[in-house]
Amino acid sequence: MWNIYALIGAGGHGKVILDMLIRNKEDVLGFVDDFSVQPSLKGFPLLGTLKDIPELMSRNPALKFIISVGDNFTRKEISIQLEPLSVKYGTAVHPTAHIGSGAAIGEGTVVMPYAVINTDAVVGSHCIVNTHCVIEHDCRIDSFVHAAPQTVLTGNIGVQEGVLIGAGASIIPGVTIGKWSIIGAGSTVIKDIPPYSNALGSPAKISTRKGGFDIDGV
User: Fold this and answer.
1) What residues correspond to the site Increases basicity of active site His (predicted)?
2) Is 177 in the same domain as 99?
């Protein structure tokens, strides 16, 4: 059965994913967005809001979705909201990206131009592996993670749910980054980072600990 895609999120990240799907010669129906006031994006129509997804699915049995929102927390919120609908998710991998043997990519994940996911690495669902990002062998990346452009994750790294790794950051082998932490752009991580932390610098030091909202209880 052939696939057709709809993108949830009609912003800048959505445009990038649209471009990848077009390059891969995939069929794209359009965008779903609760907040967009534009009738179309890059020539593709706004199909409605999240409330319109059941009707879109009934009219298009092969329809797959990608949550094309850059914010990790928002992607998780949307995925939870859509769980009762048993939505089918697709993936988008740019043709210049390299996926090694034995590597695995979860549903809804996008892999941008010139990214590398090397052998036996596992990337979870609804992740963003951004431009020129390198995820080396045997890394384990949980869901809703964003590895920004030119990040380098050397071998055997564990990255827990919801982590944001800023542009140009590097992580040495064997390190674990705790869930919903933020690694600042250009940082070098040489030891484990606890959950809900902000870490910045070279070597990275914890500057603050997150608090005030229940990420896991969304």
Assistant:
1) 138
2) yes
* Active-site annotation holds for 98: no
Q: Of the listed 13, 98, 132, 137, which one is catalytic?
A: 137
Close Cβ partners of 99 (under 8 Å, ≥ 6 residues apart): 93, 105, 111, 117
Q: Structural domain tally of the chain? A: 2
> Is 216 known to sit in a ligand binding site?
no
Please say which residue of 34, 60, 85 terminates a domain: 85
Closest C-alpha to 128, from 138, 183, 113: 113
Instruction: Choose one of 85, 115, 134: the last residue of a domain.
Output: 85
Six-digit token pair at 75? 């992607």
Instruction: Say whether both 98 and 195 belong to one domain.
Output: yes
Q: Which pTM does this prediction carry?
A: 0.95
- The answer to whether residue 205 is domain-embedded is no
Angle, vertex CA 162, rays to CA 92 and CA 117, nearest 5: 40
> In the chain, pLDDT over 70 holds for what percent of residues?
95
For 185, counting Cβ atoms within 10 Å of its Cβ (0-12 exposed, 13-18 middle, 19+ buried), the class is: middle
71 is in an annotated binding site: no
Q: Give the separation between CA 7 and CA 65, rounded to whole angstroms.
A: 6
Q: Is 33 annotated as a binding residue?
A: yes
